[in-house]
Amino acid sequence: MRIAVFGSGAVGGYFGARLLQAGETVSLIARGEHLRALQTHGLQVSGASGTFTVQPHLATDNPAEVGEVELILVGVKAWQIPEAAEAMRPLVGEKTTVLPLQNGVEAPFQLAEALGKQAVLGGLCQISAYLAAPGRIHHVGIEPTVVFGELNRRSTARLQLIREVFERAGVRAQIAEDIHVALWDKFLFIAAFSAVGAASRVGGGLILQTPPTRQLLEEVMREIWVVARAAGVPLPAETIARRLSFVEQMPPHAMASMARDLIEGRPSELEQLIGAVVRLGERYEVATPLSRALYAALLPQEQLARGNRTPPVP
User: What is the pTM of this model?
Assistant: First the structure.
């Protein structure tokens, strides 16, 4: 299958590397020092999946050099989606499927609006990985998993084909019965874990070992669950307990990318995660005081990372 990974950092690059390992024709869209490393030395993966190096079919910052493909994995940060949707147009043809892997619940709809509803799936992934250096990805832990489905909840042949492609690469792939439930299931976890992790500046292990902080994490998850239900998404009542158990099984030092970005002074997905909880809570008339407090506490860090030292107008 002809595949393009648009945004070949820690997440997109990891899944692209596994697909390359399996013999798929994969082009990596990247930029800067990371791109130069990919072109010169290939892409190296280390950590929980072992250590291996792959050579992309093509590594470039120009999607037009790749042309139309059958599958696009969108690996950019959620806040980069509007710009990415325009830039990836040369990759999209009549038979192209776009699979977003972003955190949050809004990216598939932004892509569908820009590229057409027929092209875009709902999607998410589970993995803890980071860019250790240009051209080098470190897999911290969590079994790499991709979950996807049609936004209209139908069963289609392309879902089965994509699942087979990932499974040949040794990547766990699941077709969601209801992708909207799946997106909110992860959103409940990642928005809460990211915000509490960024505020406390520690990994999941210490969050859980500190009773007041663990309680905060659980209560933020509960706020998000109430927002989901108000939005008409039938998120099961046991989701919170299951997601807390998931955190318990993670490597103790694992930290969400949003938290890591804020701690290291980089722009983050603050607006697309805990900021979206606040925004959607307002839309559906659900009070989210803890999420609002975390968002307010983290917003100055986000502004500094983006070079904006002027407080926003209330």
Answer: 0.89
